[in-house]
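Troubleshooting log. The previous structure file for this entry was overwritten by mistake, so regenerating from the original sequence record. Sequence copied from the archived sheet and checked twice against the printout by T.R.
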Amino acid sequence: MWERREQQPLLNREAALALGRTGTGTRAAEPGWRHACHVLLYAPLPAGSPPPGYAVLMQLRFDGRFGFPGGLVEPGGESLEAGLHRELLEELGPAASELRLQPRHHRGARVWPLGRTGSGSDAGLVTHFYIRRLRLEELAAIERGGPTAPEHGLEVQGLVRVPLGRGLPAFLQHRFAGDAREQLLGALPTLGIRAPPPPNNEDPPNTEPLTPKQGKE
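Regenerated output below.
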């Protein structure tokens, strides 16, 4: 069984940005949060492929955990999407140059106060999650170009396709970076996939972002 993680409310993009963009705030009522953006890239497989018929990319990180491509946004003038694009070029290489993420690809954000990110960091962190559909040839080009990325062999050890069929429960027993497991589980309905039941009667992952008003309460 995969390890239990405390559920965090899912905010929309506007509510998450209202928390602030710099520093290391410790409570949602305080400004000064760092923001990190990650993206799930997926593509439909050819007709006749085994169900569910999609390829989903994740990466094996330097710390032995699985996660999604992306990283911290620079404080100041860098937008969420610009920061994510910069990280994708570093982690995925030149094939990611055309992956222009837009606010419409944003699927929600979670707030992790001081000491609760699960990564050993003392920073208060807001983790933004994006989902982007590609053509299979685009996704395959990213896979082929991964070894040429600046961070290949350093922060990123390699790209993997998530086993979405019978192998998914076993895959979920691996260790994941931050809330990457919850992000994956929350994204499965987008692909028409029913998530495996959580262990020990744990609540299912939140998949609907809160409105700006709810996010500020």
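The longest strand covers residues 34-44. Archived copy saved in two places this time.
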